[in-house]
What does this fold into?
Amino acid sequence: MTHRRWPRWSELAPLLRPRAVPIDATARRLAHVASIRDLRLLARRRAPRAVFDYTDGGAGDEISLRRSRAAYARVEFRPRVLQDVSCIDATTTILGSPAALPLVFAPTGFTRMMHTDGESAVGRVAERIGIPIALSTMGTTSIERLAIEASGARRWFQLYLWRDRAASSDLVARAQAAGYEALVLTVDTPVPGNRLRDVRNGLTLPPSLSVKTFAEGALHARWWFDLMTTEPLEFASLNRFDGTVADLAAQVFDPALTMRDLAWLRETWTGPLVVKGIMGVGDARAVVDAGADALVVSNHGGRQLDRAPTPLEQLPAVVDAVGDRAEVYVDGGILTGGDVVAAIASGARAALVGRAYLYGLMAGGERGVAKAAEILAKEIAGTLALLGVTRVADLRPEHVLLRPDVD
Ligand SMILES: Cc1cc2nc3c(=O)[nH]c(=O)nc-3n(C[C@H](O)[C@H](O)[C@H](O)COP(=O)(O)O)c2cc1C
It folds into this structure.
């Protein structure tokens, strides 16, 4: 028999303490976000359908994309207990310079379409937290502008070698003059991937006002208002272009690219050279032989070849093949700090994230990107502590096991 009594006021008062509710709507929305997946849901509500789908989607049946994420769900951590984890050090070095986290903001095109603050917002967050950011050739902020907006950030420039080599040389020279630290050559785009969501949505750049998008505009008035009242959405490195994303990519990408072009670039660019889009051991060895200082095991976030190899699964063999001749990074499907820890334990020096920060950007501009970074940083530190590891540098393959199936 339970004996009941009236609670005393002194017991009730502490429970009734109201939580401060931010006045600003973005701050209010972000206050309820606990994970990158929450940011994704918020992004889906905030951005027009075609913009969200362009970011969220992959190529073909999106098998590569799903497998990349599923691989992280297969990870089983092997923790040690009683290890004194009162002090966690998540810092590392990337290309020989310090980074606050083993993380890089991946190059993404059309970033101002997700939110008009675009690459500048991403660059400022990268600078504040102390990680590199790679600006895309398809970026919507110029090489020089980003150098001003994020002057203290470690800035890398991602290059698509165009058919027009003189234009490519010009971009490389501009990146060098503007103090970019590294050049990232993306090699998994001989032709554009088949992005069915973009085809179905009729995505064009800049976004066009069709009857459908106009009706959608009523639902995403804030996004359209930002778009119409800020600098026009244009490519910062390309001449003015009106057309579909696939048209543009087909014009810029060069299907005739070979290892010889990589050797040419190696002679042109004197700083660190990162090759992005390696999916196997043979190519890894070849690009390192051609002078790459680092490579990214990547299938472009599942946006190019559908059914491509899964980056996390390829990583250990590539690390083995390359040894200490080059740094190896990985990307694709990373949505939590635990995923980052799993990637590092599997041999990567750093992980790149694309969508994780883009969801934040769509959800709340610069504050959304900061929220994404904060979530990942907290999860990295938390996972290290629960694993019984105090330093990123101490992560080893023994800390992870890839289970045969996703449960
Ligand atoms: C919207 C979007 C645009 C992208 N644009 C580029 C690009 O211009 N150049 C490039 O090398 N990679 C590009 N990527 C690929 C990313 O650099 C990265 O490889 C990928 O996003 C990693 O997967 P994740 O999004 O699951 O983190 C893009 C990815 C997304 C999502």
Q: What stands out?
A: The pocket of flavin mononucleotide is lined by residues 54-55, 106-109, 136, 138, 158, 186, 276, 298, 300-301, 303, 331-334, 352-356, 358 (CB under 6 Å). The longest helix spans residues 355-387. The radius of gyration is 22 Å. The first strand starts at residue 75 and ends at 77.
